[in-house]
Amino acid sequence: MINYNETQIAGTAWQRAYKVEFMNELGKVPYVHYMEEKVVDLGNGEYMHKLMGDLGGPAAPMIELRDPATGLLTGESISMDVVSVALYSDYINRALARDAFVVESMVLAAPVATFASGVPA
After folding, report:
1. Which residue of 8, 39, 109, 117 is most buried, as measured by CB atoms within 10 A?
2. Which pTM was predicted?
3. 46 CB burial (10 A radius; 0-12, 13-18, 19+)
C-alpha cells in the first residue's frame, strides 16, 4: 500500500523548550517546568513540531549560564533570586499597566453627572 501524498524531505531538526512554567506557590520551594518539542526545519520556510515531553524540578539556587550560540558554559552563573526578581518585576509592570488601562477605560466610559439644569457636576 502506498502512502498518500508521500514526499522526500531533507532538513534540520532540534529539540527545544517551547514553554517554561515557573511555579511559585506560597510556602513552597519554587519549581521550574520545561515542556519540550522537536522542531524540523523543512528548509522552505515551513517547520514541523512534535511534542517530546517535559522535565523540571525544584528551582536550583544557582544557574550556570550557557552561550546560546554554542551551548557551551560561559563560566558565569546567576542566582535564582535574580531570576525571581526579574519575573516579579515583569509581572508587576504588566499588572500595573493593565490596571492603569482598566481604570482609564472606566473613567472614559463613566457617565458624566449633571445637575438638573444640565450643567456637569
Report:
1. 39
2. 0.72
3. exposed
